[in-house]
Amino acid sequence: MKRPIYISADTCEELLDPQSAAELAERALAWEAAGKVTYGQVRALKMKVPDTGFRFHSKVVALPELGVAGARVVGYTTAPDGSRPRASETTRLIVLMDIHTGVPLAIVDEHYNYALRTAASVGVAARIVRPEVPTLGMIGAGVVARAGIKIMLTQLKVERLLVHSRTLARCQALVELAATMAPTVDVTIAESSAQVLAESDLVVMATTASSPIQVGPLPEGLVICALGSNEIDAAGYLSADHFIVDDWAQTKAASDIAAMLEAGHDLAGRLTATLPELVHNSAPNWSDNDSVIIRTEGMASQDIAFAHHAWREYTQ
What is the CATH classification number for the domain harbouring 81? Predict the structure, then answer.
């Protein structure tokens, strides 16, 4: 048997640009809406190792449109307060297989693809919901936030960008990235996350927060793209005019959402649409005064589509 190719995260970065990532994410969401994605009988295999904080989960999915299946393997260790490590301190691999022969095609380190996929999912949704954003806010400055800047500046019309993080050097790196990508956008480092929330029309939260950043009802017209857990409290979710998730089955199992549901908060009753439904219906008739929360847990179909793209570009 021919050995599978190993494709590193650095190589993936060379092979995938933000615009192509958004197109891939949108295509995978369209396949989801059309029922063209095959999942395993058990959607996710999960494991916790007692007394270590270690967490493992794996998903398998087939994309007949591409002729491939893939298994996603993720491992990381949580802190005592439940917070997760930075993306670079985790295991994230895709095993890509040919569904016609069963032959392994590649093992893809998806650290770069994961960050770009996470941002691309909400970027596509944000473009549909609110394509023109006078002020874009970014809370967080890690690899996912960096991917978020890349995606949002390709998907939206932005006049001003506000960034905030506890690490000034990382904020400055985001400023430099934005200045390179969009020289006409006014970029400012905010003094606090509260300033970002108060002055922005759309806010991307890409953090490893252990307590909510958005506390209380959302202001009128604010769109929040939540890429992490623990970023919004129950009052925030319940106040949103529209609540969009990629897959409610995954969202309701997330630790922060599960705790809210257990406390009796009817978050399911606030759901407006899933990301596949939003892409399928294309243009919702919503007011710019409506507040919106877009939350993603990540869909394995996108992970496999991104891994396939890396394999195809690498082998060609």
Answer: 3.30.1780.10
